[in-house]
Amino acid sequence: MHLVKRAEYASEYRLLLTFENGEVRLVNLKPHLDGEVFEPLKDLDYFKLFQADPELDTVVWPNGADFSPDFLYEIGQPLTDSTLAADH
Predict the structure, then answer these.
(1) How many domains does the chain have?
(2) Beta strands in the chain (DSSP E)
(3) Sign of the torsion angle spanned by Cα atoms 30, 36, 41, 42
(4) C-beta of residue 50 within 8 angstroms of C-beta of residue 7
């Protein structure tokens, strides 16, 4: 099982997530915002209210929306240090 330890906003509906193993993955959540609990996240200003929850070990929003950390890891694109340096 993977655990989200850090979450940063990247762009649009993308987050940079750091997992317990130190791996950083770029996660695009735009195609996964279906369902009643995720509907508010389609508003980009609301989407940006995410937090990394240390108790749940995943990303959460004020309305209680969250994603399984294993799902986030699975859909995330692995990034290397050189990739991160090029993006910033």
Answers:
(1) 1
(2) 4-11, 14-19, 24-28, 51-53, 58-60, 77-79
(3) positive
(4) yes
Structure tokens at 51: 């937090």
Provide the domain limits for residue 10.
4-87
Q: How far apart are CA 78 and CA 73, in angstroms?
A: 9
Give backbone dihedrals phi and psi of 58, rounded to 5 degrees, phi first.
Answer: -150, -175
CATH of the domain at 21: 3.30.2020.10
Only one residue has tokens 């130190």, namely 22
| pLDDT tens per residue across span 22-78 | 999 999 999 999 999 999 999 999 999 999 999 999 999 999 999 999 999 999 999
Give the strand pairing for 51-53 and 77-79.
Answer: unpaired
Distance CA 23, CA 20 (A): 7
The tokens for 24 are 């950083």
